[in-house]
Sequence to fold (394 residues):
Amino acid sequence: MTQTLDARVIVVGGGPAGLAAATLMALEGVDTMLVAPEAGPDPRTVALMEPSLRLLGHLGAWPGSLSFVSSPLLHLDIIDDMGNLVSAPRLTFSAVELGLDAFGWNIPLGALIVELRAAALAAGVRMVPDTVTTSENLGAVAAIETTGGQRFYGEVLIAADGIESLLRKSAGISVDRWSFDQSALVTTFSHSGSHRDVSTERHRPGGAFTTVPLPGNASSLVWMGAPNIIESLLFRTGQELAMEIQIATRGTLGLISNVAPPKAFPMRGLRARSFAANRTMLTGETAHAFPPVGAQGLNMSLRDVGHAVDVVLGHDDAGSPAAMADYHARRSRDVTERQAIISAMNTSMLAEFLPLDLMRVGALSAISSFPPLRQLVMRQGLAPTNNLPYAMRG
Ligand SMILES: Cc1cc2nc3c(=O)[nH]c(=O)nc-3n(C[C@H](O)[C@H](O)[C@H](O)COP(=O)(O)OP(=O)(O)OC[C@H]3O[C@@H](n4cnc5c(N)ncnc54)[C@H](O)[C@@H]3O)c2cc1C
Fold:
């Protein structure tokens, strides 16, 4: 007997990757169900590059009201603040060098999730506000069960259930994990001077200290460092943190004030050994996690989403071994190469890796002095220059 499907595609996880995947599927006419508890508030902001904004535009989630709480990224500065004998020159990239109005926009993640939920409902995604407890490949279909005792059948499962993904484990996909012995403090603050639409990444011993523009005289901060240092910062008063930020930004933003309550995130590295198996495709942090140097995480996740939709549309059976192999082939190079570069860049700021630090200085110096390399780095920073999914193409 053939099993009746509850939906062709079942997406599990209601973070930005799951919401975007379900909405894009539904907009492409694919019968889609999203199983996820509603995501809570998130204090992070995410720098999303031009191709990601194109995908969000497709979903109807951008620009709309999101643009009022977000800020364009016109310039990116990289400053070597390591204090070593040999240091890299200051690197400034400008969007106009690529003929763009902006590299991307800095968007509050909580507001993005609200917009994506609205877009999913408008697109006709069937929402099931429940947590998945089991998932399995039954041969011709896949099945999931939820805490509420519901059982659903789909042709393919899209795993977007985060870094400790249950679907990934059920699909028998193993991962490589590595630790950076680092955490990131996230907050927002006001400043008396203008940020001039510049995002500034300061390379400091222990990790990057990155300020990213928000509307008006305000910025978001991602401050990476040793876990004990970041933990201790959580107990400082707003005024004490303002003083720390004042010192680190060296007066470039004027007087710092109104520091929002900070939150810390552990820095982890993870890569799935396969990006699809057993009628399950991995998207977002189920497939890859790495430190936010260069703002690549969600940009890469949205490329997962775009490719997952292209694979579903391109195969009669989207859970077949051929579809699984297609998705894996589309994602493995982008993820592996970017993770390697970002991990090397991040590790170079950890004190005990002097040879890597010299490599970082050499790479930044070469980029600074060789214009074709600058162009290449800027273009690659936005997205891979080929093999973009349909929803991200211009
Ligand atoms: C400090 C910091 C700064 C960052 N800055 C940037 C940036 O500037 N640009 C950028 O591109 N990226 C950035 N990132 C990365 C980006 O924030 C993440 O990649 C993204 O938020 C992960 O989204 P996700 O949907 O994959 O996972 P999650 O947001 O973790 O969502 C997973 C969801 O699945 C749900 N779930 C879990 N288990 C189940 C289950 N069994 N059943 C149903 N649902 C389940 C959870 O409730 C959750 O809602 C940053 C990350 C950090 C830590």
